[in-house]
Amino acid sequence: MTTALNTQFGIEGQLSFREDASGLVVAEIDNTSGRASLCLQGAHLMSWQPKSQAVPVVWLSRDTKPVAGKSIRGGAPVCWPWFGAHATEAGFPGHGFARTVPWQVIESGTEPNGATRLTLRLVASDKTRVQWPHDCSVDLTVIVGETLRMEMTTNNTGTDDVVIGEALHTYFQIGDIGQVRVTGLEGCDYWDKVGGSNLRTQQGAISFSGETDRVYINSAAECVIHDDKLKRRIHVAKFGSLSTVVWTPWEEKANKMGDMGQPDGWREMVCVESANAIENVVKIAAGTRHTLIVEYRAESV
Ligand code: BG6
């Protein structure tokens, strides 16, 4: 399988495909300005490091590995076509099925600035229709270089309008969760999912001293992760997204999860997810499309 992929989509010195020990295929990108890996299952970006940075910008748990049908812990899971728990079916997977099903490679190329582009597609199948009976395809394009851009387009190819929830659920690598602040959401309302579901308003920058699980709504703002330990700022810009999810499990929950990189991997990540969730779910009329875009860059300070 990788031979055909390498022949059709590989780019000499930039992009190649390999089969992981699990049998899943991983795309490896390494160009003059950045490197990344992406598992074809779930179109799951697993890592990204611009060459200007000594430490990766996207965090991947050391306890995770690609396994068929299971989501990878870390990277940038694609949550689609719903975010969080399914509205009515408790047995359906959290964050939708897109992150655990195979995607197809449909295009690759090099941008004028030397960045590498790769596009994957998820097409509705009998299996996905059991959980979501609509005709939609999703394209995810990643552009890897000094910055990382991801574009997720949902095409409603059917004859009915659909409503989707979605997120690029990115885990960012940080020095220590106790020493970071996230700015950009000051004054925003959020659903606080820790200890119930309460609507609150953000006062000042976000800092962390315990489990944090918040869905900020009605905000298209860029966020910045200020990391005093690694002495850098990570900029999280987005388009076509009105929700931002800020999540970190803290010790007790991380221990229960068991795949966060024991004993203290949880201290070295924070999720800042560009989403459309809760009241920001998106209605896509028949025959139209919707695109969510993120762009990340790291800056040493
Ligand atoms: C976040 C949710 O987006 O993802 C959290 O807000 C959840 O509630 C977290 O715990 C991780 O989800 P999962 O399904 O990857 O374990």
Number of domains: 1
What is the helix content?
under 10%
Query: Which molecules are bound in this entry?
Result: 6-O-phosphono-beta-D-glucopyranose
H/E series, N to C? Answer: HEEEEEEEHEEEEEEEEEEEEEHEEE
Number of strands: 23
What is the count of helical runs? 3
Radius of gyration: 18 Å
Residue-averaged pLDDT: 97
At CATH level 3, the topology is Beta-galactosidase, Chain A, domain 5
Class in CATH?
Mainly Beta
Helix- and strand-based class? mainly beta
Task: Using the 3D structure, state the CATH architecture.
Answer: Distorted Sandwich
Q: Between the first and last Cα atoms, what is the distance in angstroms? A: 44 Å
The rough form would be described as globular
Could you give the order of strands across the largest sheet?
6-7-8-9-23-19-18-13-16
Beta-strand percentage? 35-45%
How can the largest sheet be summarized?
A: 9 strands, antiparallel
Which stretches are low in confidence, meaning pLDDT under 50 for 5 or more residues running? Answer: none
Account of the protein in words:
The chain has helices at residues 2-9, 126-131, 250-257; strands spanning 15-19, 25-30, 34-39, 44-50, 78-79, 104-110, 116-123, 136-144, 148-156, 162-164, 166-168, 171-173, 180-183, 189-192, 198-201, 206-207, 212-216, 223-227, 232-239, 243-248, 269-276, 282-284, 289-300. By secondary structure, the chain is mainly beta. The chain has one domain: Beta-galactosidase, Chain A, domain 5. The strands form four sheets. It has a nine-stranded antiparallel sheet with strand order 6-7-8-9-23-19-18-13-16, with no helix packed on it. It is globular, with a radius of gyration of 18 Å. The model has no long low-confidence stretch (mean pLDDT 97). 6-O-phosphono-beta-D-glucopyranose (BG6) binds next to β20.
